[in-house]
Amino acid sequence: MSALAIAPTFLSDFTRLTPDVQLSTLAVMRAYQAGERPVLETVADAADPRVRIVGIAPDWSGVIVPAPAGGEPDDGPGDDTDPDGRYRLLTVLPREEALRFARRLLPASPEIVPLGPGAPADPLPSGPPELAGALRAPFRQWQVTLHPDQHRITEAHHNGAVQITGGPGTGKTVIALHRAARLAERDAAAHPGDHRESVLLTTYNRALAQSLSDRLDQLLPDPGVRARVRVATIDSLARSVVQANGGIPPRLIGKDDLARRWRAVALADGLPFSGRFLVDEWEQVILAKGLELLPDYIRCERSGRVQHLAPEHRRQVWETVRRYVGAMRVEGLWSYPQLAAEAARVLGRGGPLFRHAVVDEAQDLHPAQWRMVRAAVPEGPDDLFIVGDPHQRVSDNRVSLASLGINVRGRGQRLRVSYRITQEILDWSMPILGRRAALGMDDDADTLAGYRSLLRGTAPVVRGCADRAEELAALGDWVRVWLEAGVDPAEIAVAGRNHWVVRGIAKELAARGVPTAPLEETAVPGAVRVGTLHRLKGQEFRCVALVGVSDHLLPPKAAIESADGDQVALEHAFQQERTLLFTACTRARDALYVSHVGRASRLVTEGR
């Protein structure tokens, strides 16, 4: 009896089809089960001669291949002349896309074969016609390639601030890059005699800032126009403003180090609050809201802070924080949000620095950093161009742009079509986030509903290993296969959660004669990039391998302990780790490899 089964990955594809195409797909499957054999078309030049196309709806087709019967090995070709043929439906796509997809399927496989040892083949994904040339171009050129439909976003004129949000691979960073270049060109034309830096392109971390600077050099070959754009991290901007004002380089302290310091003094003072709670209260309430007086703190709404504080407890927290911050001032120490708040005050007294600002990875900026950006650029046409994704937030920061005087209502756009990573990588990565909606920067819940990719490629590979030696050996094999398939070493990234894992990665690759360079070293040719998951943020590679995604390493013990028993902080810590892993997975355009020792991390297994 004829049968038409579905591939394990098909259900996620099915949910993205329009209702009429879904109904047509179900009708074809019912007809098949009833013995009515729809016409199956062969596919010219297909890698697997057994692959077939079946009509689903006008201009839509399904891709099917023979499937083993009853779980037994497939004994024959099972083509469409076999009355007992069993098939598996892989996907339903517009007809031309279905044909391209079918031609790429490897022989003797009921599904897309993941790239791995013993199967050296270029993992280049397939995509729509408008991207075909760009996908085949050198990756350096791809990194500045903007989807044709998105040029209007970078070219548009606006009366004020604009916000662009979207999931991974929707081209947000490339849009930010092109927007900065376009603003510089306009500024050069409008102010030919004024050669100062007029456009700020800022982001969250140094590796991404360096990558943006390198790519901007490609887009702006004219040195005079390029000199109008300052590319800087948000923290380096704050440091430069404060140092220029006071003449002394500020000494910065991270949140975890600060929490440890405050934990010790809180215990010595006999306070009922943990060091982490006090730091979070200072940064996420007092500094975030710009509170300078006790009565304002007593009255304020502590949004996102579950632990209730009575007025008398708020008074105690306020006095404690004031005392601890005073001690920091004596030592000359600054936290990053505190430094941004000071920079905003300096700019408020001295005036703006730029005419325009483009902010990438905007979801991770603290409210104090937004106040600094607002003070650095005067309000006016095309003043702020804000790009981010709340689902990739790796900080505790929660921001309402409207409350900071940045109005983007009516000038925002949500990108829902990805073209920089494959659908297969998206399908595997999205469950890592969990089911919670993210809080957007305009006070609205942000979801990934309707999010899909234009690219199709190999499924991510997850490798479980018995011990660390086996895991590193398997990684070395996998990287070697990518290299033998023709992937440039600089287009491959390998990352781990901590520096201990990263050192093991670097040693293994060095022992195999594979040159490596840190993830932030964007200009080093011919070397595989190696670093921590955090360093992957905002970057893009053809192939990405994540090592040590094990339950005893991710989430790390230190992240859990840093919560100090604070349930709110613990919940934030877990969500940050989910977001970090999700973001790292979606740095791969073509292929993703994930390995672990023992049990895989619960962040991977939960929700699947």
How is this structure best described in words?
- It is globular and about 80 Å long.
- Helix content is 41%, strand content 18%.
- It is built from 23 helices and 23 strands.
- A six-stranded parallel β-sheet has the order 8-7-11-12-6-13, with helices on both faces. Strands 18-23-22-19-21-20 form a six-stranded parallel β-sheet. The chain has a five-stranded mixed β-sheet with strand order 1-5-4-3-2.
- The chain folds into four domains: 3-113, RelE-like (YaeB-like fold, 2-Layer Sandwich), CATH 3.30.2310.20; 148-247 and 353-415, P-loop containing nucleotide triphosphate hydrolases (Rossmann fold), CATH 3.40.50; 254-334; 452-605, Rossmann fold, CATH 3.40.50.300.
- By secondary structure, it is α/β, with parallel strands linked by helices.
- The model is unreliable at 69-84 and 108-120 (pLDDT under 50).
Provide keyphrases for this structure:
608 residues, alpha/beta, YaeB-like fold, Rossmann fold, 6-stranded parallel sheet, 41% helix
Structural class: alpha/beta
CATH class label of the largest domain: Alpha Beta
Report the biggest beta sheet as strand number plus sense, adding barrel if it closes: 6 strands, parallel
CATH topology grouping of the largest domain: Rossmann fold
| Domain unit count | 4
How many strands appear in the DSSP assignment? 23
Order of strands across the biggest sheet?
8-7-11-12-6-13
Radius of gyration: 27 Å
Any idea what the CATH superfamily of the largest domain is called? P-loop containing nucleotide triphosphate hydrolases
CATH architect. name of the largest domain: 3-Layer(aba) Sandwich
Tell me roughly what share of residues is in helical segments: 40-55%
Cα-to-Cα separation, first versus last residue: 33 Å
Mean pLDDT level: 86
Q: What portion of residues belong to β-strands?
A: 15-25%
**Principal-axis shape:** globular
User: Which regions contain 5 or more consecutive residues with pLDDT less than 50?
Assistant: 69-84, 108-120
Number of helices: 23
